[in-house]
Task: inverse folding
């Protein structure tokens, strides 16, 4: 039997840049898929639609946060939102996690806020917690996120 050629594709270089306005639907899609993958029980309970996510990005995020994306092979594969030292969102397409894309965005956040960063994540999100701890963040407070989530959360802090 002849040997089959490997079908491995080389990952092209990932580009980190600010969002372009027409990319909001793509960014909302990445954010949605990654949230559902990370905390499916919370997302099922909240029941947000894609339209809800798109509206949140358009009205609640873009006017108030710097939005950064990671692009791979011309496709948006991750998103990060930052306001001062507040790292509000950092999400990577589930199939592309653990490949350094999130770390590239986190490095950008550290460049943008060199005096330090804070963020919150759900206590149940073990993957995110391990990622932040591996990257020098330390847990500073355990509490409950505001409604409508009302879920146990943890606040992290990074200081250089």
Result:
């Amino acid at each position: 039997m002849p040997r089959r050629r490997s079908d491995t594709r080389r990952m092209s270089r990932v580009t980190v840049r600010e969002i372009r306005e027409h990319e909001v639907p793509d960014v909302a899609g990445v954010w949605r898929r990654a949230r559902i993958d990370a905390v499916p029980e919370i997302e099922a309970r909240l029941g947000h639609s894609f339209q809800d996510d798109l509206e949140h990005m358009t009205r609640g995020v873009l006017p108030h946060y710097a939005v950064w994306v990671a692009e791979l092979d011309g496709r948006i594969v991750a998103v990060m939102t930052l306001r001062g030292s507040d790292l509000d969102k950092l999400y990577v397409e589930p199939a592309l996690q653990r490949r350094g894309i999130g770390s590239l965005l986190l490095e950008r956040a550290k460049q943008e806020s060199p005096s330090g960063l804070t963020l919150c994540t759900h206590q149940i999100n073990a993957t995110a917690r391990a990622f932040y701890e591996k990257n020098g963040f330390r847990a500073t407070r355990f509490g409950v996120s505001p409604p409508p989530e009302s879920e146990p959360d943890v606040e992290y802090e990074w200081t250089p």
